[in-house]
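Chapter review. Work through the record for Winged helix family two component transcriptional regulator before attempting the end-of-chapter questions.
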Amino acid sequence: MPKRIALVEDEAVIRENYTQALEKYGYQVDAYASVAEAERQLTAPLPDLAILDVSLGDEPEGGFKLCRWLRSQSDSLPIVFLTAMDSDFDIISGLRLGADDYITKDISLPHFMARVSALFRRISAMNLKAEQCEQLEVGSLLLDLDRVKVFWKSNMVDLTLTEFWMVHALVKNPGHVRSREQLMETANVIVDDSTITSHIKRIRKKFSQLDPDFDCIDTVYGMGYRWKSE
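Structure tokens for Winged helix family two component transcriptional regulator:
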């Protein structure tokens, strides 16, 4: 059964172009022009992926609003921003709202499709991991691969799918340095260096909100990151 993608884009030509491209790759696409239309139509079951523009019609941050709404419906729904807004502030804002990726519209179509495919590969790989090993425990950290949940000292850490997979990539080899390129490869994610850095910052913040003494993600300058022992 084809993966179902919700595409929210207010410009008709762009919406049609991306719809055709995604359908050409075998995806089923439900396209919407506004926040109101998307909220009205996106009922259970939710799609397999939501792709959102940020500025939608007369709502300059409509995509951010829709992202918050979708996150209230599901913690695990993959969400990607596809937008012309490319400032660091916009990118960080999108990731902080729980998006799994932030893609600017100057990206080539093959690269865009590669990132969509990589996201679905990551989900499939996660499901396979869950079948092979339901839990991974390292010190005070517990990864429940079956439910895609992370627990720190028995408290659940609210991570997005991308954040969960990055933590998994770090903790399955504690003490080993993982470069940004290795994190992208191991986590099946195609993003740039600044996006990896933003994800790491958000992961640290979420753990620190539960435990102010959390200090298990170590930055090895010029090399990457590692999960160190408590």
